[in-house]
Amino acid sequence: MTNPAPAPPHARLVQQNDPGSSVPLDSGRPLSIGRDPANQLCLPNAAGLSRRHAEIRSSSDNTGWVIADLGSANGTYVGRQRITAPHPLQDGDRIQLGRNGPVFLFQWESATAQQSSASSATGSQATAATTTASKTTASKSTSGKARAARPAPQPAVAAQAAGSAPAEIDIGGERISLDRIRSAELRSQALHHHIFSWWVLACLGGLLLLPFPLVFWPLQVAALAGAVLLGSRKQHVLVVVLRDGLAYRRSFSNRITALSHRNGIRRALGQPVEP
Fold first, then answer.
1. Residue 158 and residue 137: Cα distance in Å, rounded?
2. Mind giving me the DSSP string for 178-234?
3. Nearest-angstrom CA–CA distance, 246 and 135
4. DSSP helix/strand/coil, 89
5. Taking Cα atoms as reference points, which of 217, 252, 254, 216 lies closest to residue 237?
6. pLDDT in tens, 229-271
7. Were both Cys, which of 45, 140, 146, 227 would link to 199 (CB 3.0–4.6 Å)?
């Protein structure tokens, strides 16, 4: 029997100026930090922060955590030392992004805290179930009629049950509480950014290698048609930004599908739906 792979200790990143705001770390998903909305932790208004500034991920042996600078202009500091290579993190380490940028504290989560959080969630669910059962019994005794309970609908990306917004939504297989979501945006970007440049190079190369018009022009027309077709292909990315700055992304090849997911989230949040 093979032993299971080791897992790094549970940890989170806490803002020094706002201890109540923290981001849990996932060993299966590196946490990228920067001003670009594509980052897992997006801080668009942070001073001295690069578009892609730093990344926190599990160590190579999967027993701890390391932080790496992503070529930022103002550097990444652990304590007072600027790092130039992936740097191992210890409980309580102070991380500063840039000389005057945001400051975070790296903290390990104890097993007691995890059990307390799980017990609290279980207790809340039990209380909610008891309250619902009491209300159902009272309604039956008042009306004198038994009504069959309908199963709750399963949300895809966003759903509504009985005309009211659900407590949480499902984004790419991960359930997110609605009160954590700040906005949902749709970004469309070309799949082949440099296709026109390649077509220009093909024209110049063909002009030198194929001087005969009967051969040159048909090939260039075919290359232009291919460039237009490839250049029109786009990828549509749904970006859901949480209130703590964490961003979730999901890619779609069809714009209508991506819009329906975005609009579903906005309706659940009570925000205006744009075409």
1. 30
2. GGGEEEEEEEEEES-TTHHHHHHHHHHHHHHH---HHHHHHHHHHHHHHHHHHHT-E
3. 37
4. coil
5. 252
6. 666 667 788 888 888 778 887 877 787 887 888 888 888 777 8
7. 227
CB 191 within 8 A of CB 233: yes
Residue 106 neighbours by CB under 8 Å, 6+ apart: 11, 13, 14, 56, 65, 67, 89, 90, 91, 92, 93, 94, 95
How confident is the model over 167-186, as pLDDT tens digits? Answer: 677 766 677 788 888 888 88
Structure tokens at 64: 């701890």
Q: What is the pLDDT of residue 213?
A: 60
User: Which DSSP letter does residue 161 get?
Assistant: B
Structure-block tokens of residue 72: 């930022």
Q: What H or E segment, with its residue span, contains residue 77?
A: strand 76-78
Residue 149: predicted pLDDT: 43
